[in-house]
Amino acid sequence: MFKTARFYSPTMGRLTFDQVVDEIVRIMEEDPDTRYEIMVGSDSHSSPGEMDFVTAIIIHRVGKGGRYFWRRIRERNIYTLRQKIYREAFLSFELAKALMEELERRTLLDYNLEIHVDVGRNGRTRELIDEVVGMIMASGFPVKTKPESYAASCVADKHA
Predict the structure, then answer these.
(1) For 83, which DSSP code?
(2) In which order are the strands placed within the sheet that holds 36-47?
(3) 126: DSSP letter
């Protein structure tokens, strides 16, 4: 699914999914003694007749900065807040799962991978938080919500 996806990096430009994984592995192998956190999160914004979804991957060298990559897709027939939030969460889950599988195939280095969802205890999404968090946790991924879900609420939002 992600083999043909186009990702973007502020420092490297347009990349394929394989190139993103190559870069993440290169970053980790450059400094194998550092602790790494990888976050995946999505956000969306509507435009007439369609919804733009942006999903971001962040690799954070704890205490030493990080890099990020993002991709955009456009979809129609998203009418409710529930549909939008579930689609964001599912896009993040799909990408996190594919990324984890590729990283497990390519490196033995240690990292933490978590999904960031754009829901929080305040605002209109508070009614969905337990459902969305439960769905992702049941899939085996740690999950962060607002205000700690910066992969979704800051990085993906910046490009959505």
Answers:
(1) H
(2) 13-16, 6-9, 65-75, 50-61, 36-47, 112-116, 143-144
(3) G
| Separation between Cα atoms, residue 147 and residue 47, nearest integer Å | 25
pLDDT digits (tens, 9 = 90+) for 109-158: 899 999 999 999 998 999 999 999 999 999 999 999 999 999 999 999 99
Task: Give the total residue count for the chain.
Answer: 160
CA end-to-end distance (rounded Å), the chain: 21
What's the pTM? 0.95
| Element housing 40 (H / E) | strand 36-47
Residue 72, sorted as left (phi over 0), alpha (psi -120 to 50) or beta, turns out to be: beta
What residues form DSSP beta bridges with 61? 36, 65
Q: How far apart are the C-alpha atoms of 149 and 93, rounded to whole Å?
A: 14
